[in-house]
Amino acid sequence: MKISVLIPAFNEEHNIEETIKGIKKSEHKFDQDTKLSIVVIDDGSSDKTYEKARQTGVEVIRLDENVGKGGALNHGMKMADGDIVVFLDADLKESSHEFYKLVLPIIKGDADAVIAKFKPVKTKGGFGLVKGLAFYGVRLFTGEKVTCALSGQRAFKREILEEIGRIPDGYGLEVGMLIDILKKGYKVKEVEVDMYHDVTGRNIKGFMHRGKQFFDILKVLLKKIGERKQIA
Question: 2-231 has which CATH code?
Fold first, then answer.
């Protein structure tokens, strides 16, 4: 059994080392025969993300320009040879050690893909519009109620990623991938974790981020509607 962890990172010099260390701390959660590989994809960072990731001894891919999370993950997939592939954000810090909770259900045969379910945060973010769009979008196309459709912390059987092909670009990638996976009949499970990461607040930067996220997800859903009409 081999597990490949992919970490797309853009200007995460303050977080990347702790995130990698947290992942390594969980190696004892698996059998001795299980091999863990970590690949960081430096998505055109202008800080010292690349250098700090290299210092931890993991594999690091350096992209000359920022291509976005989906593009970075597609580059990472070229290096991921694990039976199970995990996507993790670079800003999880030491809470990344909880990633093993995403992998164990797949090893046990209880799921084909697992999504991390974060505990509610005390800091107020948006007004729930993006989360609502993701939830009802997934339900519209699959009939399934997935409460954490936006979560970027996920684990997959390798064959799932091979079947769905290229990972979508933009902030709608999680929703788009989830719809495709569920429509193909794979079993998706949500698992509670004690992870945490940076949360965008109720400020101009935060609202701009959520606005971009909303429209990216909307574009994905509209594309899915177009595809369904073509089939019909």
Answer: 3.90.550.10
